[in-house]
Amino acid sequence: MAAAAAAAVGGPQPPQPELPAAGLALDKAATAAHLKAALSRPDNRAGAEELQALLERVLSAERPLAAAADGEEAGGGGGGPGAAEEEALEWCKCLLAGGGGYEEFCAAVRAYDPAALCGLVWTANFVAYRCRTCGISPCMSLCAECFHQGDHTGHDFNMFRSQAGGACDCGDSNVMRESGFCRRHQIKSSSNIPCVPKDLLMMSEFVLPRFIFCLIQYLREGYNEPAADVPSEKDLSKVLQLLEPQISFLEDLTKMGGAMRSVLTQVLTNQQNYKDLTSGLGENTCAKKSHEKYLIALKSSGLTYPEDKLVYGIQEPSAGTSTLAVQGFAGATGTLGQLDSSDEEDQDGSQGLGKRKRVKLSSSTKDQSIMDVLKHKSFLEELLFWTIKYEFPQKMVTFLLNMLPDQEYKVAFTKTFVQHYAFIMKTLKKSHESDTMSNRIVHISVQLFSNEELARQVTEECQLLDIMVTVLLYMMESCLIKSELQDEENSLHVVVNCGEALLKNNTYWPLVSDFINILSHQSVAKKFLEDHGLLVTWMNFVSFFQGMNLNKRELNEHVEFESQTYYAAFAAELEACAQPMWGLLSHCKVRETQEYTRNVVRYCLEALQDWFDAINFVDEPAPNQVTFHLPLHRYYAMFLSKAVKCQELDLDSVLPDQEMLMKLMIHPLQIQASLAEIHSNMWVRNGLQIKGQAMTYVQSHFCNSMIDPDIYLLQVCASRLDPDYFISSVFERFKVVDLLTMASQHQNTVLDAEHERSMLEGALTFLVILLSLRLHLGMSDDEILRAEMVAQLCMNDRTHSSLIHHIPENPNPKSGIIPGSYSFESVLSAVADFKAPVFEPGGSMQQGMYTPKAEVWDQEFDPVMVILRTVYRRDVQSAMDRYTAFLKQNGKFPGNPWPPYKKRTPLHPSYKGLMRLLHCKTLHIVLFTLLYKILMDHQNLSEHVLCMVLYLIELGLENSADEEADEEASVCGPERCHDSWFPGSNLVANMRHFINYVRVRVPETAPEVKRDSPASTSSDSLGSLQSSRRPKVLQRENSGTAQVFSLVAERRKKFQEIINRSSNEANQVVRPKTSSKWSAPGSAPQLTTAILEIKESILSLLIKLHHKLSGKQNSYYPPWLDDIEILIQPEIPKYSHGDGITAVERILLKAALQSRMNKRIIEEICRKVTPPVPPRKVTAAEKKTLDKEERRQKARERQQKLLAEFASRQKSFMETAMDVDSPENDIPMEITTAEPQVSEAVYDCVICGQSGPSSEDRPTGLVVLLQASSVLGQCRDNTEPKKLPITEEEQIYPWDTCAAVHDVRLSLLQRYFKDSSCLLAVSIGWEGGVYVQTCGHTLHIDCHKSYMESLRNDQVLQGFSVDKGEFTCPLCRQFANSVLPCYPGSNMENNLWQRPSNKSLQDLIKEVEELQGRPGAFPVSFSSETNLSKEMESVMKDIKNTTQKKYRDYSKTPGSPDNDFLFMYSVARTNLELELIHRGGNLCSGGASTAGKRSCLNQLFHVLALHMRLYSIDSDFNPWRKLTQLEEMNSQLGNEEQQPEVPILYHDVTSLLLIQILMMPQPLRKDHFTCIVKVLFALLYTQALVALSVKCNEEDRSAWKHTGALKKNTCDAEKSYKVLLSFVISELSKGKLYHEEGAQECAMVSPIAWSSESMEKYLQDFCLPFLRITSLLQHHLFGEDLPSCQEEEEFSVLSSCLGLLPTFYQTEHPFISASCLDWPVPAFDIIAQWCSEINSFTERHAEQGKALLIQESRWKLPHLLQLPENYNTIFQYYHRKTCSVCTKVPKDPAVCLVCGTFVCLKGLCCKQQSYCECVLHSQNCGAGTGIFLLVNASVIIIIRGHRFCLWGSVYLDAHGEEDRDLRRGKPLYICKERYKVLEQQWISHTFDHINKRWGPHYNGL
To answer: SS3 sequence, 694-730?
Structure first.
């Protein structure tokens, strides 16, 4: 090891003379063996000294390390880890093995491994498993191997990607149940493992201390205190790089198993060794220097070495205890030692902080501070110190963790970790890579603190809790600022600053998560809850978050910079305050734990009191500011709730006095009011972030730590405070007091008119929630879960995972209600139905959804819960819409229902006081006023307000106290209580109380003021009110005339009574800003008093409302008058549907039920027929508006009619054009129809809308999409589908694909024959062929050009590239990229050509030949360059550019015209073949197929034919000659010197057909077409016979030869396959074709004996593909329908359809294919001629000659690879598989589903010429179309040319939903339907049309 000199053990030794190099290279093994022997003797001092000397030498290599770290030649310069290190390691290995082989030594040690734990350590991004069924600790995790070896069937497990790293817990029964252990770790093996022999590990015990000491010296030497407080990461990583081999060596040692680990533990924890080696005493200068560096490093970390303690720590012993009073940051001598001074200045200087509060620390820290003293006593401790100093290098972390299975080490290491905790925090705060470092800290701590036993031990022995709390407190102290809440100038409260990196980057989370982790252990949590000092400190910590991130409402302009700090604030409160709170709460479940709750509540209240004092709070919150963060309130609330629910504590015993309750309710209430303000857009100038805060506050992850405790606390306050006071506070906070007046007009001093309505709705809704919510007031956990679930499902159907996401999980992991747990699933199945995933042909994928059961809508839908839980207001509307739809559908209620009224679960007795709110005068006055205003149609009132008012009345009736005993006595009441509104506080009684006059203050402009009549005569005022349409203010005066009421004055009075201050003091308290607002009523000069006559009671108002709502006079009739039973046995359902009318009826019935008086009064009111509302006179102005309305109505109707017409047209068009999958209901859009009436084809242009023929100067074109396709090339010849490889053995080789076979054939031909002739003998385009498809719409080509121009100038970002000519069809928006010109021609002409002629075959053959020879014989002259010909040329160019050059150029001479010729007829072939595949590979289904309707083949043929005729084939080489004429034999002789032409029997007949047809002038005559088909069929049949003859063996051949020869002279010999076959055999026998009887021959011979049936079948199968393509061609060219037929008769039907079968042919006896033959020249002559060509070739190349004759004609349909049932099989194989190109494991592996190739997605490693691997593969495998499965995401991605899209997943979980990115990690199973859809889209080339979200990939995938 490089130059780490060591001090000798046992006294100084003379420095060794440096040995020459040769000395070091002594035979290491011999030395080791000798030393081992010496050490084994009883007296081994000499041996020990010798070994020390050797180690000294070996471990101090020549190069001083100081140079390695400081000098430039380190790392790179010195040639990497130098030879010296290598040498040192070799020595160590040798010495450990004691002279034996190191490998054997390792194996020997492994044999003694008693460890029953797995302990495999992994780093971030490793894939591990977690099983909740088996886990005891929530952090439990297993490596994949242990998981798959264990039995977890039916368990609740998931796979996850480790974020911070972890270790496998298999075998550790502290963390998981033993039933979940895997097979390897189930056996407790310690019993049967023999004892370790002493001498095996003896050398290790001597060598390892020196080795580890060397490592530490290395670390000491390498560390340089960074100069400018920026750790020079370069230097650190350089040192670490040098140490890589050493640490790896240690890591390998740990993997040798338990025996070696225990030796290492001894070495690491032995204090004597450490002392001897590192004390830095002795002469050795190097050691001294290293010790000095160590001390410097300690000091610079703000730590002291205990010897210097007196300088650093100053104790202040106080009476009896040693409580440390720490003076914040007053000076560097504070006992909470400093962070680095430089660090401190920038912390403090930048912030200019105010004075800090004194922090009291608990006394348990003994006499030395947690924060600064570190003393290292062992190697382990110093190793950890350096690990932290170097910011947790991964290798070191892994080494330290690998040792954990050793129990002794685990304890020692945990203690050491705790000892360094403060230091870890300091390093973490300064770190620049805090994320990485956080992950590594948690990686370690989660292993230590998840174990309850260990955590308890450390808590007891090392003050773990003190340390953690102190460290957290300390960490937050560095970022405190003065709170601006309430009293900005004088506030003494400090809060954390959410803008600091510490909070913004979540730097605190490792420490907080450790704290949460240890609090989950009951024994630890109990210690915490019992320790008063700790609780005080912790509340102190929590108060730092109280009131953070204060929002101030912007009143003038929009805020310039929207700060996003609120994320940090919410995260901090959730993680640092709420999570520990839930952890503590989980241990307060039983009665015995009451004391804990009392402790927490006590210190919480103290902290709250301090807080109110610190912010100078008296009674009014400061206006226009809100903070969402009140963790102290929430701690208090949650512990109260727990105390009542689980611990049977008396609530009042833990409640404070009234004054404190009043203060407590202020801030949570402020938040509720601010929510309403934010939703009313009053905070709009604060930007979007304030909306974000309002949404986060109620969002599912936060709500049960935020809004729920707040509402609960308000419920508690409401149940204990005066109800009038509470109600008035609410309306005042919501700023709607001024609105609550009887007058029709009012002035609101604090609210703009446009916000009044929504704020009033907000206030009423809040009251309804407050009174109806029972989450903490008596519901059981299961009821809560059910209510939450119902609320979520009512808003929207949900997938299983989104339900889990939206239901507030109980944040405490041990609560048992874990999403996915038993109770969750059982509740879910009780309330919801599962809708399986659906597939629409349109391609939109549905996931499996849960939808509420009918009875849930019927009985459990709870709008209150929905309102509480909605993040977006639209969800409330969505729930109501779904509810309405349900009622309509089930015929329960036809109209627009109101939110249903639901009976609540009974209140817990402790909270009964809450219901007093419903029975207080203040609320009744508000309800009365609002009912009156609604009846009078005042402004700013909505149906929602009425709904909430009725809800509150109904709640009051449901919860009325039985005070009706003295109801008769109170009849004479009205006179007595003349001055106040209501006599008592019971709602039931107050409902019937009539209120006669009300004095109101109104603006002088108000209509009420006009009449200045005295109170006595104000009977008329009702009329005046009705005409006035404005709202009102209530003020209270004690005058006898009428009752006047002021909420505010009342409230202020109450407050003063309670606070017991004199009135003048109270006035001073009120801030001057607001004093004018609530001053004496007379101070507002523009207000005047008016007296209104009302003469109504709540009951009478309700009855009138019923009339108003139903729009009928006297609509209410008391139901009990008809049926007295109603009163005796009322059947009031718990749950009621209906609208306002039913609600009013329900309330009146309940009121009557509860009191006879009410019943009587209702009857009286109904008897007095309400005077009809006087009809209003219609003024002229109004008449005008009415006329306008009428006119508008008519216009609207007209518009509706037009729209409907347009819609139906669009629908019919959509049906025609867009249909992808359903052939039945389509109307054919044939572009050229064959009806004789039409003279010329007419086209509609979808851009300009004109119709007309396509002409030469203004051609029309079809909208087409051209795309290269390799689908055809993927056909295989075997039926067995290929599977995706999931093991190394399974590989897919592409040589049996259609494309490969055709390639081989072409290259074989090109080897032996003339190139130009080869290119006519085959088709290309199996790979990269151009497929043309259309949506069927046409447009003028000039219109199209201007359309493209407009698209080019369009700035909108499109999903396609206009520069590449892409566009969407203007009508149906289908993707397209070219326009195919329509050939001008009349349909009549078409018909003439189809007339059958009676010419003989021979004449037709001559005509065909002549026509082919005539150049450019088009009916339209193309001599001049017309627009049409230009367009034809440009579209041809487009077609060529669609595919890559390699798929076009096959000739040996590049650019030869033969290439183009080949390419063009192959385009036709590709399109015909693909259409055949779309029809299912045969034509049995006949004419009805979607492909036909939108086919553009006719147009395509014209374009191709036009271009083909530019190349005329030299008549000598025209294959037509060879097919139809006999040649003189001598012409063969001239070809010897050059390569011969391809023999005609090697030609591909379908290619010949296309060549012949495209060479003919268009339009083609039917009889010419038939003639060509007949001639070619003869050739095809001969080929079939030849192939058959080659396939069978010698005996068969000779047998057939003889049988056939006998019949040769019969009449129809030319039409008998037996005769022809025998002739073929005899002809070919002249050559060498059959001579090669050898091994190869046997392989090709089919083993079956040929019968005549099997031969006939073979011949038919050979010819069928040609017949199919020809029939399709005929169908497109001549518009004839295809007949449908059975599969077995396909041959005969097609051949008769093509005119090959003579008409008189009878079909009785079995069909014989040969009867279709019609030979142009005598059969035997021409066959002989064709065979002689073959013979001359096989003279030289018999093998190839044979191979070329056998063509595979039967291709199966193309398929994607078959995928395994379970996704895990794919994932486990591929996610660790190495890429074959770069041999690395890709970050994003992907697999091609077409060919199974494994590729790196986005991997730069496999990039070639700026193309990433997936894009490259998509070009090579699919000619630009790629279908890839992303292994790590389970998603399929489609690449199409330059665009890509995420298609979705074909693997779904048990709940029918995708798991993109495998976030949930649940098992996934193949969804066959989805995979079919994918395959269908691939084959039909419709990815572009069906998938909507495309984006450019810029070749980066």
So the answer is: HHHHHCCCCHHHCHHHHHHHHHHHHHHCCHHHHHHHH
